[in-house]
Amino acid sequence: MNWITFLIISWVAFGLEVGFRDALRLAPGDIAPSFVVPLIVYIALSAPARHALWAALILGALIDLTWLLPRDDLAESSVLGPHALGAIIAAQGVLAVRGSVIRRHLLTLVVLSVAAAAVMGIVVVAFMTLREAYGDPIRFNPTGELGTRLLGALYTGGTAVAWALIMRLIDPAFQFQNERGLRRH
Q1: Is residue 51 in some structural domain?
Q2: Are 154 and 23 in contact (CB under 8 A)?
């Protein structure tokens, strides 16, 4: 896998995530699509397992660093870990099923992105609920967050359609190889 291409595409995905996500937010609540989850799924479908898991960890940690949580003292803070763990678990799920799906089909990326976003959302809510239960001064509503994240996972399928079309064009730049180090055609 070409890590320079990965970094450039990740930069674009995070630019969309931070800058454009609010424009696509649905009126009731914080239901918004993710631009990073389809990238995680695409990498997990195409790259060797070791590279896919490292990429998921990096992207999940970056999501954590850009996610600000309100605290009881009216400040905001970020928590490193929930999205990183969720991204690794989601990528591992994609790695588990990639042998039985048609990797280059548009709907594969869409369906697996919805599933991966749902898994990430569940992991984040579980992680933050445990953290709050042990006295962390964050303000976190688990029920509302879970519903918002699961609806956002469905909405992420829309961004996955666009990503599938874009990734099909730039796939050669990634220079993916199979597990034996042979370049994929």
Answers
A1: yes
A2: no
pLDDT for the residue numbered 180: 57
On whether residue 27 sits in a domain, the answer given is no
Tally of domains within the chain? 1
What is the C-alpha radius of gyration for the chain, rounded to an integer number of angstroms?
16
Give me the pLDDT at residue 184, please: 53
In a domain, 22, yes or no: no
The tokens for 51 are 């590279």
How many whole angstroms separate alpha carbon 181 and alpha carbon 176?
A: 9
CB within 8 Å of 97: residues ≥ 6 apart = 112
pLDDT reported for residue 71? 83
Q: Note down the domain range covering 50.
A: 35-68+76-173
Q: What phi and psi values does residue 79 have, to the nearest 5 degrees?
A: -120, 120
pLDDT at 77: 84
Looking at the domain assignment, is residue 19 inside a domain? Answer: no
Angle at 76 (CA atoms; ends 71, 79), nearest 5 degrees? 90
Residue pointed to by tokens 């749902």 = 118
The stretches in the chain having pLDDT less than 50 are: 185
Residue 32's φ and ψ, nearest 5 degrees, are -145, 155
Give the strand pairing for 69-70 and 76-77.
antiparallel
* Alpha helix positions (H), the chain: 3-19, 37-46, 49-66, 82-97, 106-133, 142-174
Specify the pTM: 0.91
